[in-house]
Write a structure and sequence with these properties.
The complex is a heterotetramer. Chain C is α/β, with parallel strands linked by helices. Chain C is 37% helix and 25% strand. Chain D has a domain at 32-247. The longest helix of chain D is centred in the middle third of the chain and has 27 residues, at 207-233. The chains are: A mainly alpha, B alpha/beta, C alpha/beta, D mainly alpha. The A-D interface holds A 35, 84, 87-88, 91-99, 101-110, 112-113, 224, 227-228, 231, 260, 262-263, 265-266, 269-270, 272-273, 276-278, 280, 292 and D 62, 108, 111-112, 114-116, 118-120, 123-124, 126-127, 130, 133-134, 198, 243, 247, 250-251, 254, 283-287, 289-294, 296-298, 301.
Chain lengths: 292, 385, 247, 333
């Protein structure tokens, strides 16, 4: 029992991070049908910027974070949308997805060429303390991560449902043509979703890098796991991404303890394939209308 | 397209031809510069490049400078083999790399057929068990390092049971198989067999399972970053390293691990073949030079690449000529002392298989520093000067 | 005369919207049967329910006396039911000739046999003849996607006849066609009908087109049948007048 | 069968094929063993990419799992050869296995489409990788299997040039068979499947069977490539059969031009020879490649072979813009 609790809590913390990255996936999918295979690199880059700020410019973490947030909002949000999405969106899903694969290669290897292939430690934004309750070790950091992700989800939800801009963004996501008719400035709102995605990625970077350690390939497995999470939960639903992330995180841990560790990735993967085959809209997703 | 191809060929020809002045001696390097082996391959390459720069500054080998061309195997054995093929075409004196055993296994056949001495970073035991006279190690084979560790675990620590946490790639699986064998012959039971993924982040399940099995010793055979994450998780779950020692190889307590794991590394012990933390002024000096050159600390792969090149220099100079066949022959009984050849950092000898032997250390992390507990003598496969 | 197609109580809703609310009709063998109605009256949904694109909520469809309710489009095609879609549906990357061959090749030999068969499955002659009939012989080798709208429309219709279907559904054949050649289109359809002997079911907006082409016409409004009869009868029906003019 | 007409395009294609064949046969005269090995690798990559091009480019089914089939072919041959079975028996076994698994994987294609299908094949590939790595008793796991070069009619293929000729022959035969298939009614049905599956079904085209076949035949091509890859490298381990190699195979098809017969030839050449071509760029070569991929997708998503058409279309557009400015009378509505 203790063991289940122990690995479940760790899994939730890991899963919360997957969820955060996965939410970005769903955001972009909903508004522009973009599958961003570079999502993991969108986390790696702000982490790299923060580390650069801390190590090279000697900035405090908070300042470095704000700087990285702004730069990635501009670069991975606005510039990404203008330079890559806009010219390619009319070609359909596949060329865009391929382009993001190209982007992955460029970003990952660019950072490696600049900063080398070694892993680097990264400061914790929250203090790390261990509490032991009934033989189960709780890390204050894990709890802070789960709480931060919950806070981000809550804030994002408030923004999407509680503000005019947010509601318009949802309208755009659900039906861009109708949104145009309603007089919504679709272009600007799509731009917002890209900026929000980049900001989410930067926030994820702040939470994840102390645990993952900074390395040029930081985004590789993170992006893939987040992708599994988004599919499992529901590609067109924000809460789907959240639940999917938690499921993947917990499942990985449980299967490593109670199933063959060498196949621990296979369990989440198996679920991923099953969901695609039997519930392609995801566990929590809405069914998408098939277009003739 | 054809034009581009021609242009590229011409450009490549110009670029490779230009620096290779007639009296230079040619080395070719094939390293894991991208893909999962990037860290290992890059360190190895950096170490080798550093040695070559130094040697060239001192006038080269037998008065000839070393010209090296390196390429990226992308951690893919198919590419590694292709690049070995290319190396053979260029007729170099020495082939350096690769580091991952899979790539070594695919490329060594090519070098062997061409009679090209190959200096590798792989530690899998079977590399040198195939009668290839042209393959040489830069570090212990797992067949030599594991008995040293097994003796320590079964003898000094008097363990009756161990749990093994290993990374599921050729490096980790090879180590796991060897240690399981050695433990079996010493009547120590392996009570948990914990495979982990390369690049794994969350080690809570591994530690939980290790705790469940309650072993006398936890043996860890992971890469540096994963080691650091495991150590953090051990600390978090309250693992008592005094009661249940955590023992590993170089990769458990390297400088990088301590940097990444912080005080969670305290108490971890390891058999260390090559470490910049050894009480050895030559290694300390190397560490400083490496860091100055690459703004990063060298791991054992950096030392492997560096010392490998210096061994080549020492053996060649003793031979007095550049002759690949004679070189391979001389390697079978080569003994290089650090006193006469400071670049090799530690005295070393080779046997007929291409395996090496030298001192190694048992180190423990205390207050964020590697402290050498004792020096472990060579295994005895050849005579260390 | 026997009914070739019988539709009884066919219904389909989308959420709360009853797109088709229980429609009955029968199409006699050899006639041209028109379906008209204002936008959103459920014509195309009804077509899709009959032709296997949508599953009807209720009702039955029989073809030649056999039950075909909910059958897949492939099965219907194999039974000899051809169709066109409301929007253009040609294979844009294939040549016009290949579009026609594609429309009939699956009726020649077996699946495995077609791997080893001649590239044109022996259909070039028939395709050429139909191309000539459709006045498309001069563009036979051009990719269908590069043809003009009217040409693609003709090709689309031609594909429905290529396999020798007994019953052909045409969803707005004259929509978007230059008004000058709507007449030609009707003439073409009459000629195709005469040659193939097939039965037609036609959805159309263009009143003149429908009235000139069809033997009988069914009028739909709000998912229901409001009139059925000869063009003259329908034209005189006050309910129809109201649906079209009064609304 | 009707004779192909000698149109200008056919003559040009024929001339190109003859020139390419002559160039490839003459290449070893100018190349050292490395070059020959690289060309052998190119030939086999092209075979695998031709298969993927059939699945993706002609039949419109996205697959991100082609490397898994490469692995199935390679491991079938390696395992059987280790057990003492001749390569020439292992080859059909590997190809059949790849075909059968491809057929099975085609079933998801019936349930889900487009990107979901790509995801399902991606998951499949990751699972195959795990099995290859973990089932050491069968596959040698991380340590891999050594594979000897086979003999052909008593003649050993150990020499790089001999084996290169074998690889070229494999490429020629695969290309010819796929070309014949594309010319047959099947090829037309595949195109219909890609252009408009719903219309295809209404015309009696059995979309289900053709989708399954498109998958299985593409997989079988990869199986062929894998079966010949193992003896080429003399060694196989799991690394060339993971997700990243699958993505590179996809890039080969996309870069060359999906749905174009010679696309895989060009795409495989670029990706296989890439590190060689960008040697100048040193550690930046993958950065440059990544940017190239992004730029290609932005300006010409149809791949490199679509560039001439794209340029021609742009010129024509400019000309007609000028023409319509000069006088609107000639322009058609």
């Amino acid at each position: 029992m203790q063991e289940i609790l122990q690995v479940t809590i760790s899994g939730l913390a890991t899963g919360a991070i997957y969820a955060m990255v996965a939410m970005g996936f769903t955001l972009l999918w909903q508004t522009t049908s973009t599958i961003n295979f570079a999502q993991g690199e969108f986390v790696m880059l702000p982490a790299f910027l923060m580390l650069g700020g801390i190590v090279v410019l000697d900035l405090p973490l908070a300042v470095a974070f704000v700087g990285a947030l702004l730069i990635s909002a501009a670069l991975l949000g606005a510039a990404f949308k203008r330079a890559i999405i806009d010219p390619m969106i009319r070609h359909g899903v596949l060329p865009l997805a391929i382009a993001t694969i190209g982007l992955t290669l460029a970003l990952k290897n660019g950072v490696k060429a600049i900063y080398g292939a070694e892993a680097h430690p990264f400061p914790h934004p929250f203090p790390v303390e261990i509490w032991r309750v009934l033989g189960v070790a709780f890390s204050s950091y894990d709890i802070a991560v789960i709480a931060s992700v919950a806070a981000v989800v809550f804030a994002l939800n408030r923004f999407l449902n509680g503000t005019m801009t947010g509601r318009s963004m949802q309208a755009v996501a659900q039906n861009p043509e109708a949104a145009v008719v309603l007089g919504i400035d679709v272009k600007r709102l799509i731009l917002y979703t890209f900026v929000v995605n980049a900001a989410l990625a930067a926030a994820a970077a702040l939470l994840v890098t102390p645990v993952y350690l900074f390395k040029f390939d930081l985004g590789e497995s993170l992006g893939l796991k987040a992708f599994y999470a988004a599919i499992i939960g529901g590609f067109n639903q924000m809460r789907g991404a959240l639940v999917g992330g938690l499921i993947v995180g917990v499942l990985e841990n449980l299967s490593a303890v109670y199933f063959a560790p060498a196949y621990k990735d296979a369990v989440a993967l198996g679920l991923f394939v099953l969901v695609i085959l039997f519930r392609p809209e995801g566990l929590l997703g809405r069914e998408e209308a098939r277009r003739v | 397209m054809r034009k581009t191809a021609t242009a590229c060929v011409a450009l490549a020809a110009v670029l490779t031809a230009a620096p290779a002045v007639a009296q230079d001696v040619k080395f070719v390097g094939i390293f894991e510069m991208s893909g999962p082996g990037t860290t290992a391959g890059t360190n190895f390459k950096n170490g080798a490049d550093l040695a070559i720069k130094e040697i060239n500054a001192m006038g080269g080998i037998l008065g000839r400078k070393i010209a090296i061309t390196s390429s990226d195997t992308a951690s893919n054995p198919t590419t590694a083999k292709a690049l070995a093929q290319k190396a053979v075409d260029e007729q170099p004196y020495i082939l350096l790399g690769p580091v991952f055993s899979g790539s070594v296994l695919s490329s060594m056949i090519v070098a062997q057929e061409a009679g090209l001495p190959q200096w590798i970073g792989g530690e899998a035991a079977n590399i040198t068990q195939q009668g290839n006279p042209f393959v040489f190690r830069t570090s212990f084979s797992q067949a030599q390092s594991m008995p040293k560790i097994a003796n320590y675990i079964a003898g000094d620590l008097k363990a009756k049971s161990i749990a093994v946490a290993w990374v599921n790639n050729d490096f980790g699986k090879g180590g796991r198989d060897q240690i399981a064998k050695e433990m079996g012959s010493r009547n120590v039971k392996v009570v948990a067999d914990l495979s982990t993924e390369p690049g794994q982040v969350d080690f809570s399940a591994v530690v939980t399972r290790a705790k469940q099995s309650n072993p006398d010793v936890l043996f860890v055979y992971l890469n540096e970053e994963e080691s650091a994450r495991l150590l953090r998780e051990l600390k978090k779950q309250g693992w008592d390293m005094k009661k249940n020692p955590v023992v590993g190889e170089t990769t458990l307590i390297g400088q990088k691990v301590i940097e990444l794991a912080g005080d969670a590394a305290n108490g971890a012990q390891a058999h260390v073949g090559l470490t910049i933390d050894a009480p050895n002024p030559l290694l300390t000096a190397f560490a400083a030079k490496y860091e100055a050159a690459y703004k990063a600390k060298s791991d054992h792969n950096g030392i492997k690449g560096y010392t490998g090149v210096y061994v080549i220099k020492a053996v060649t100079e003793k031979l007095g000529k550049f002759d690949r066949k004679a070189f391979a022959e001389a390697m079978k009984t080569a003994q290089v002392s650090a006193k006469d050849n400071p670049g090799v950092l530690m005295s070393v000898c080779f046997n007929k298989d291409g395996d090496l032997d030298r001192d190694s250390y048992l180190a423990v992390v205390k207050d964020g520093k590697q402290v050498i507990e004792k020096t472990l003598p060579p295994v005895g496969i050849c005579k260390v000067p | 005369m026997t009914a070739l197609l019988e539709v009884a109580g066919l219904a389909r809703a989308f959420g709360a919207v009853r797109a088709v609310g229980g429609v009955d009709f029968a199409v006699e063998d050899g006639e041209v049967f028109g379906v008209i109605g204002p936008n959103g009256s459920g014509k195309t949904t009804m077509f899709n329910c009959i032709l296997g694109q949508l599953r009807p909520d209720a009702g039955r469809v029989r073809f030649g006396g056999a039950e075909i309710t909910g059958a897949r489009p492939l099965a219907l095609a194999r039974l000899g039911i051809g169709r066109t879609f409301q929007s253009l549906q040609v294979f844009g990357s294939l040549s016009a000739r290949d579009n026609l061959i594609a429309a009939a090749q699956e009726y020649v030999g077996t699946l495995a046999g077609r791997l080893l068969a001649a590239p044109d499955a022996g259909l070039t002659g028939r395709a050429e003849a139909l191309l000539a009939r459709l006045n498309l012989a001069h563009v036979a080798d051009k990719p269908a996607g590069s043809l003009s709208y009217g040409q693609q429309k003709l090709l689309d219709i031609g594909m429905a006849f290529m396999s020798g279907a007994r019953l052909v559904f045409l969803d707005e054949p004259a929509a978007g066609v230059n008004p000058r050649i709507v007449g030609e289109m009707a003439a073409m359809l009459r000629a195709l009908k005469a040659e193939s002997g097939a039965t037609f079911v036609v959805i159309e907006h263009n009143m003149d087109f429908v009235m000139g082409l069809c033997d009988r016409v069914m009028v739909m409004a709000e998912g229901k049948r409001i009139a059925l009869g000869t063009p003259a009868e329908v034209r005189a029906d006050p309910q129809v007048l109201e649906a079209y003019l009064g609304g | 069968m009707t004779l192909p007409t000698l149109s200008r395009a056919n003559v040009a294609a024929l001339a190109f094929i003859v020139a390419m064949t002559a160039g490839l046969l003459a290449a070893p005269l100018f190349l050292k063993t490395y070059g020959v090995y690289l060309l052998s690798l190119w030939a086999l990559n092209t075979v695998a990419a031709i298969g993927l091009n059939l699945t993706l480019g002609y039949a419109g089914q996205i697959s991100l799992g082609q490397a898994a089939f490469l692995g199935i072919g390679a491991y079938a041959v390696a395992i059987l050869m280790k057990a003492g079975v001749s390569f020439w028996l292992g080859l059909p076994a590997g190809v059949l296995l790849a075909f059968a698994v491809g057929l099975a994987l085609g079933f998801p294609a019936l349930r889900v489409q487009h990107h979901y299908l790509a995801f399902a094949t991606l998951g499949f590939n990751a699972l195959v990788f795990l099995v290859i790595r973990n089932e050491e008793w069968l596959t040698g796991g991380n340590f891999g299997i050594r594979v000897a070069r086979p003999e052909l009619l008593g003649h050993s293929l150990r020499s790089g040039i001999d084996y290169y000729h074998v690889c070229l022959a494999v490429l020629a035969v695969t290309a010819l068979l796929v070309w014949l298939l594309l010319r047959s009614p099947w090829g037309r049905a595949f195109a219909c499947l890609r252009d408009n599956p719903i219309r295809a079904e209404s015309l009696g085209i059995d979309v289900r069977s053709y989708t399954l076949l498109a998958f299985a035949i593409g997989a079988a091509c990869a199986g062929v490539a894998g079966a010949f890859l193992a003896p080429l490298v003399n060694f196989i381990d799991p690394s060339p059969f993971g997700l990243v190699p699958s993505i590179y195979l996809l890039l080969m098809v996309i870069i060359g031009g999906p749905g174009r017969f010679f696309g895989p030839f060009l795409g495989a050449a670029i990706v296989t020879l890439l590190p060689e071509w960008l040697r100048v760029a040193d550690v930046w070569y993958l950065v440059i490649f990544g940017i190239f991929v992004v730029a290609l997708m932005a300006f010409c998503p149809g791949g490199l072979l679509a560039v001439p058409e794209k340029v021609a279309a742009m010129r024509a557009a400019r000309r007609s813009a000028r023409g319509s400015a000069a006088g609107q009378a000639g322009a058609r509505p």
